[in-house]
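can u do me a favor
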């Protein structure tokens, strides 16, 4: 009997698709004819019918198990008297027909949200009706309106949540302070970015010594105070339900979709200066080697004595006699104490061998209308690192506290590289002659040692990129497997309950332990059948991780399944928030680059694939694709081991770190893609008039569904095998693919 598996359909803009299997097996390829009756994100049962010449499974859909009620966003068009919506997400491979009476108040060309009335069939397109009109494509903020609906990001609080938030007090009441430590006289301060609006954490440090005289052991007492959201957001309340649904705040340029109502996130829970606030405190003793020798947790009431920015703190630490230090004279010594404990914690980090690659993070600066003014590198100074190390220390203590109590909770787990990624990395290091490799059971110190040993090589960027790519993604799970990248045996998130639901759960668990009771997860509403399927998948796929080697997997209890489901939900929504943010950034960058069509820039290759090279511009930090058809009139072969394209006749090589000069040749706003062409020495540039032609062609392409070959899906990695060769004709102006890369930089504080 041929294999039948369940999974979720992932459409591709070229018309084919894949089934992402529930059991974690290799994706099943679906040819275009199989995609006619299914939609992107449908849950299906597929039968593997054959393997292609490279051994990859190809399948046929035998049953549509579940069709999630997701809206489709696109532009309303009228062609030959027929109304249709061309989906903005090209993974939906078919236009949606709109009956004449179902267009509502929408006008041709406007962006609309469509609700399906009839699903697609083998010989018929899907039919829908206009549910919501978002506006014109160039309206300010349209990219965010599209993204929140495209990725199903909850962006409106429920009426019950808003009503409950209104009943909350405007300030800390006398009864709220009961059974709390009074820290209002301790000069706790917040240190955040200039544009921060909510303040999760405050810090204070003072030197301490064990013993007397010359034998005294130097150390510090470090207090990390975190907003006590759990005091106001009760388990299972309307605010809690909405917070769980969102699981995280979502950050866009110029706009934030918060996890909590503004009254909490920017008011009652935010550690604003010179007002009383409730907090949970991690109170630590740290020795001169940066080791935490003791810690305790307790609820407290605090008074922030100052709101600092990273820039301001860095200036004070750099010059204690400067103007910034003069203005903050009463806090300078406290900042110096924080800097001292930071340097001790850094010693501990280096001893552990925690991975710390320096990468360029960027920030999009927009004007009032939402248009990009510039893209600038986000500099990371000692103030950023100081806060990061303090938060890491508090997070480690939180994980240890929960672990020692044997109370269930969520850990932030980052496992080492998979055997497949480990083998690819080992082969790459060998091929590039690094002289160092990783063991079969590598430690993070091995990765950092390679990074340190290669930092002065001309291909350092390429090597460090490969090291990063070999890492797995961090997840939330009740099964503690440690944090590989940070080299911690146990790690969790405690420090951002205003914007991360897992942190709120950690606070509740810690409070329960302090009160000698057990915390019970809220009975939050979930679709019955979907939740049952989730539970079955968890029992089947994850039970083995909680069993001892050589023993049969333990059957998960209802409590364990609930914690597994919470971790899965929070991890998935974190990915959703990242994807939505990247999508908006890609849109903005595409609009920005449309104004620079035909212009020439220097850049560096940031990725090599079988279909071309991705280049990031030096001046703008924008990534685009130079398709393989633009690399010259010869065969280019992709060497997966070296991660490079190499011309078979000339030996020309393009790998990560190669410097090139390119011209912006095409921008596809709908596809979030930017196309470059190589500019060779002595070549005449395309006239400036190309800009106007490019825009006209772009508009025309949107109507014709953009059928250019070799287009790469922005949010999905390419599925090309190594060794693929492509013929590159001398003239291929009409065969250019495109890709817009989103700035994947994100503040380390929020990522970890």
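np, heres the sequence
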């Amino acid at each position: 009997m041929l294999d039948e598996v369940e999974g979720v359909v992932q459409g591709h803009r070229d018309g084919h698709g894949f089934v992402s299997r529930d059991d974690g097996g290799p994706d099943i390829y679906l040819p275009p004819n199989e995609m006619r009756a299914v939609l992107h994100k449908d849950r299906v049962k597929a039968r593997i019918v054959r393997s292609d010449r490279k051994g990859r499974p190809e399948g046929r859909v035998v049953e549509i198990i579940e069709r999630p009620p997701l809206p489709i966003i696109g532009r309303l068009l009228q062609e030959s008297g027929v109304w249709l919506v061309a989906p903005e997400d090209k993974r939906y491979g078919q236009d949606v027909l709109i009956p004449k009476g179902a267009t509502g108040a929408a006008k041709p060309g406007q962006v609309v949200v469509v609700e399906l009335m009839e699903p697609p069939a083998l010989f018929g397109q899907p039919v829908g009706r206009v549910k919501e009109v978002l506006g014109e494509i160039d309206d300010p903020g349209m990219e965010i309106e599209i993204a929140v609906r495209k990725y199903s990001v909850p962006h409106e609080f429920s009426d019950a949540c808003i009503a409950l938030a209104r009943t909350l007090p405007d300030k800390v009441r006398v009864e709220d302070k009961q059974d709390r430590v009074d820290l209002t006289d301790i000069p706790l301060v917040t240190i955040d970015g200039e544009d921060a609006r909510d303040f999760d954490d405050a810090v204070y440090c003072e030197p301490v010594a064990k013993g007397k005289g010359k034998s005294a052991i130097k150390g510090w007492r470090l207090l990390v105070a975190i907003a006590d959201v759990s005091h106001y957001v009760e388990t299972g309340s309307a605010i809690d339900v909405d917070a769980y649904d969102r699981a995280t705040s979502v950050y866009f340029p110029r706009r934030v979709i918060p996890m909590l109502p503004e009254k909490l996130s920017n008011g009652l829970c935010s550690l604003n200066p010179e007002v009383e606030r409730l907090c949970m405190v991690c109170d630590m003793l740290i020795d001169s080697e940066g080791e935490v020798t003791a810690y305790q947790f307790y609820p407290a009431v605090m008074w922030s004595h100052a709101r600092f920015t990273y820039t301001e703190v860095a200036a004070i630490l750099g010059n204690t006699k400067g103007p910034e230090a003069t203005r903050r004279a009463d806090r300078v010594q406290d900042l110096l104490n924080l800097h001292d404990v930071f340097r001790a914690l850094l010693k501990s980090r280096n001893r552990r061998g925690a991975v710390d690659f320096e990468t360029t993070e960027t920030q999009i600066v927009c004007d009032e209308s939402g248009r990009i003014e510039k893209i600038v590198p986000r500099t990371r100074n000692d103030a950023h690192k100081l806060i990061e190390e303090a938060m890491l220390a508090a997070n480690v203590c939180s994980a240890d506290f929960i672990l020692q109590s044997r109370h269930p909770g969520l850990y932030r787990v980052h496992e080492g590289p998979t055997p497949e990624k480990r083998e690819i990395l080992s082969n790459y290091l060998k091929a590039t002659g690094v002289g160092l490799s990783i063991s079969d059971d590598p430690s993070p110190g091995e990765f950092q040692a390679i990074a340190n040993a290669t930092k002065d090589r001309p291909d350092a960027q390429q090597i460090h990129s490969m090291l990063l790519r070999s890492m797995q993604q961090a997840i939330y799970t009740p099964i503690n497997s440690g944090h590989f990248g940070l080299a911690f045996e146990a790690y969790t998130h405690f420090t951002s309950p205003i914007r991360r639901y897992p942190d709120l759960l950690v606070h509740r668990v810690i409070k329960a332990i302090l009160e000698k009771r057990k915390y019970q997860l809220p009975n939050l509403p979930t679709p019955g059948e979907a939740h049952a399927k989730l539970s079955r998948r968890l029992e089947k796929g994850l039970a083995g991780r909680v069993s001892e080697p050589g023993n049969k997997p333990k059957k998960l209890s209802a409590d364990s399944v609930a914690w597994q489901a919470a971790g899965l939900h929070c991890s998935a929504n974190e990915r959703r928030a990242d994807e939505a943010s990247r999508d908006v950034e890609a849109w903005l960058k595409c609009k920005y680059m449309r104004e620079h069509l035909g212009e020439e820039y220097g850049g560096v290759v940031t990725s090599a694939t079988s279909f071309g090279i991705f280049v990031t511009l030096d001046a703008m930090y924008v990534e685009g694709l130079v398709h393989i058809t633009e690399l010259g009139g010869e065969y280019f072969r992709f060497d997966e081991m070296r991660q490079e394209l190499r011309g078979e006749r000339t030996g020309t090589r393009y790998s990560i770190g190669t410097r090139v000069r390119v011209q912006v040749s095409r921008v596809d706003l709908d596809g979030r893609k930017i196309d470059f062409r190589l500019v060779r020495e002595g070549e005449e540039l395309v006239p400036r008039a190309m800009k106007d032609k490019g825009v006209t062609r772009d508009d025309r392409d949107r109507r014709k569904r953009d059928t250019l070959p070799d287009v790469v899906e922005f949010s999905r990695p390419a599925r090309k095998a190594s060794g693929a060769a492509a013929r590159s004709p001398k003239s291929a102006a009409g065969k250019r693919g495109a890709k817009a890369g989103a700035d994947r930089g994100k503040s380390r504080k929020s990522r970890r």
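The chain has a mean pLDDT of 84. hope that helps!!
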